[in-house]
Amino acid sequence: MKQILKILAGILILLVPTITEAHAFGLQFTLPLPFHIYAIGAGAALVASFAILGLFSTPALSGTSRYISKTFSIPSLRFVAAFLKALGIILLTLTLALAFLGSGNAFLNPAPILFWIIFLLGFTYLSALFGNLWEYMNPFKTIASWILPKNHVPRYTYPGRLGYIPALFFFFSLIWLELLSGGAGANPYVLGGVLVIYTLISIYGSALFGIRDWFHYSDFFSVFFRLVGKFAPLHITPQKIEFTPPGEHLLKSRTAHISILFFVLFMLSSTVFDGSKETEPWVNFIRSSDLFLNNYSLVSHVTLLFSPLVFFAFYAFAIFLMKLVTKTATSFSSLLLTFTYSLIPIAIVYHFAHYFGLLIFEGQRLIPMLSDPLFRDWDLFGTQSYQVNIGIIGADTVWYIMVGAILLGHILATYIAHRIALVEFESRLQIILGQLPMLFLMVSYTVFGLYVLSLPFGTGV
Amino acid sequence: MKTKIIIVLAGMLIIASGWLFLGKEAENVQPIPPETILTQPKEFTLVVENKKIISGPETITIKQGETVSIIVTADEDEEFHLHGYDRSVDLEKGVPAILTFKASASGRFMFELEESKTDIGALEVLP
């Protein structure tokens, strides 16, 4: 097994430098937010925050709110789970087949769009609405369960102190492949190779630590979609369907490991990084010194790597102030974990605001390719000559959706942080005082997010 | 209490969206009369040397519905390609080439030297 991994990794390393397809992917046709929309959005975020603080400061609200939950005894939901499991395997097989059998050009092979746009963006937003469907779909888990014998005894117990660090590592790798690999991630063969390697790693990891622990702690996709799914108003399990106010599941539990905090912060910071790297200030910064210009790749890597730390510094400072003003007995590190999930709505809506344009425009490129998936001049569905409709949604509509989504996420995040505080603190004064630093943090994140979306673009790095 | 919360949240959303639409109207106070659009394409002249624009705007800004003419002269044989609108024109060394079209869709569209895949600038069509 180790040998195969080494060989495949070797092939990948050899492939990467030979492929340079800058802008093969991720062409957004979005205009920067005009100043007045940015200002209104920022103002509304501030007003909304204080409205929430004013409205919900009574501990009476801290009890669990009632919501619709329907329990099924019929096998229909088991059928849904089986269907999702089959779908996961079919989609992975299809993507791999297209990646290896189709054209080697990122523009002519549907596999990169299927993975990066439809799956990684589309499925994320589906999960934010319908809950953690990945739990049932995960093809890597299905394959591991097929290969490992039923009575397989893991060689090691998963080291709990490691937490979700492996998943975080895979998250970094994925973002690297997306943003910093010089377009290698969009190359169908590289993408196919990466998916094969990831499948092998999943099997090997499951053999070492057991399927349950490996996918709980180390599989990027499982951790990512589990966190995103917590935001959803709908939750489907084989026994029941639950309909809750959005974000309700973020209140049900708290994370036990700091790596989840960095996971959420990296979701936010990698999106901000992607949104910044073509803006005028960033381009000017790079152009300001030959040192940066000549080491552009290194500067980008360092920025991406340290970006979650900047967001962490602000979060930690807010928590520090919270501890200071409330004089609570709960430790600083425990408070860091307690409020982690309240950042998820901000991370999701910022991701959505930044990437939904890509889903709408770049996603359309799948339509002609579906008719000719292997680039053999077929016309299976009569859509081979479809051209991307750039007028499908106006740039102004995009602005309103961006700001609307960001405001909604901000309101939810502030509300959830507040609900957590109602449970965490006892006196009304503690709740209000303790919430002020959190409120400023959320307003800062939101306004900064809007600010990045309002920056003019630059060209020529 | 719960109804109160919902009413206040709904109210805030309505106010926020109202602001947005007011802002939109304020932006559109001066529509361009249709006859100007038909008769006068907006012209932009770009000179490209060493795969960089040395004269002319890197960002061309126009309003949706206007007709635009981009005149490109390059120091090598290349192809000028505008993303999104997906329009191309062949460039012959030292000979100005022209691309004229009506900007019907708003957004930001990069243009590149197709053969060397170098982005040299962008067209911004404001709604």
Quick structural overview:
With 461 residues, chain A is mainly alpha-helical. Chain A has 20 helices and 3 strands.
Descriptive account of the structure:
The complex is a heterodimer of chains A (461) and B (127). Chain A has helices at 2-15, 35-55, 76-101, 110-130, 134-137, 139-147, 165-180, 188-209, 211-218, 220-229, 248-252, 258-276, 280-287, 290-294, 296-326, 332-338, 344-361, 366-371, 395-424, 428-454; strands spanning 68-71, 234-236, 240-243. Chain A is built from 20 helices and 3 strands. In chain A, β2 and β3 form a beta hairpin. Chain A folds into 2 domains: 1-25 and 67-244, no CATH class; 31-65 and 255-461, no CATH class. Helices cover 67% and strands 2% of the residues of chain A. A 3-stranded antiparallel sheet of chain A has the order 1-3-2, with no helix packed on it. Chain A has 461 residues and is mainly α. In chain A, α3 runs antiparallel to α4 (110-130) and α15 (296-326) runs antiparallel to α20. In chain B, a hairpin with a 4-residue loop joins β8 (107-113) and β9. Chain B has 127 residues and is of the alpha+beta class. In chain B, 24% of the residues are buried. Residues 23-29 of chain B have low confidence and may be disordered. Chain B has 2 domains: 1-30; 34-126, Immunoglobulin-like (Sandwich). The chains are: A mainly alpha (461), B alpha+beta (127). The A-B interface holds A 21-23, 27-32, 34, 36-37, 40, 44, 47-48, 51, 55-56, 60-61, 65, 361, 387-388, 390-391, 394-396, 398, 400, 403-404, 407, 411, 456-457, 459-460 and B 1-2, 4-5, 8-9, 12, 15-17, 19-20, 23-24, 26-27, 52, 58-59, 64, 83-86, 104-110, 112, 117, 119-122, 124-127.
